[in-house]
Amino acid sequence: MDALNEFRLILEKGGTDTHTACRLFDQFGEVSLEELPGTWRGKEFHTGHPMDGLLKRLNWYGKAFHDAENVDPLLFEGPTGNVFAVDPVPMMDSRKLIKAVGGKARMRKVLHRGKVSAAMIYDNLPIIDHFRKIEEGVLLGMMDEKTAEIPYFFILEKI
């Protein structure tokens, strides 16, 4: 079975394990920096990671790539449907959601797991989100947090 069909089956099933997610990530293609600018709707790709379900409960909306130096890594949707950027530092240390002023990350091409592909580097956290292309306008993201034992996976769909 090819990677795209396996990915679709996993979505229908509701999740997979970290090993399978890593294997699929490695099979998908590189992403150029030119493909990233714009707003992307996010959803979780469940692998049994401790963060599974957290972003959905917080009404995670996605990410916004403005240019190479300005990325809003966390967009959330408010109760009235308004979308706003959140500073990832207080959120990641479990304090609370605080609106961000200006981008809190940047994008670069990074060699990761044998491929050079677009990545988002957080300004103030030891985290890099690596991206692989599932198909046009759909990316699989792998959050590589320096202190985490396993990566966290998510999907981005370009709006």
From TrEMBL:
Residues 103-158 form the DUF4334 domain. InterPro entries: DUF4334, GXWXG_dom. The lineage of its organism: Bacteria, Bacillati, Bacillota, Bacilli, Bacillales. This is DUF4334 domain-containing protein. Pfam families: DUF4334, GXWXG. Residues 24-81 form the GXWXG domain.
